[in-house]
């Protein structure tokens, strides 16, 4: 979705009615005991499946809205920060398996919104809503995620954070944490799609900054990149026909 695809009336309605905040509120989980009670009955299970589908679609809708509207129309840095914090808690601070029928669909939709929010925040000078705890959680989830689509979105988020962190002179441990996760992906047994996304994030994070060389040296990033070159060339040559839309 692009801003050009939305009429002025629709944009006005989205902004004045606070649609992003409302969508997120309606997408929040209820009391766990209610979910457990519904699972005891066949009709309850069907209801929860439908609820999960609607929730994922609502988050996809929210992703489209965030992507399409300018930061000012979304309420500026403060509103985006609140949206980020609320959605982050919804996605990572709860045991989503208890609440959703398809965890992968939920995580893919939720991380898609987080990536779009981070894209907006990255254009600001120094967003205050991203904490060290957020970085730690994102690094862990990125390393552990089994769904490629979710992992790619998380990698992209780390790339945005890394690019912002690289400009500072007091975030060595953050850069090392980000770099370690991304390094392990490029040297691991992953698809070319994932490896290339991780490389993009590495280049964004370690392109320039007062501490990037120190951080890269401490995790042996350059050595791993040098060792990756011949392997990557060979894999691209042998797998290019199977890459489909990911080849470029």
UniProtKB/TrEMBL annotation:
Residues spanning the membrane: none
Domain (SYO1-like TPR repeats): residue spans on this chain: 8-246
Superkingdom to which the source organism belongs: Eukaryota
MF annotations from Gene Ontology: unfolded protein binding
Coiled coil (UniProt feature): none
GO terms for biological process, alphabetical: protein import into nucleus; ribosomal large subunit biogenesis
Protein name in the entry: SYO1-like TPR repeats domain-containing protein
Organism taxonomic ancestry: Eukaryota, Metazoa, Cnidaria, Anthozoa, Hexacorallia
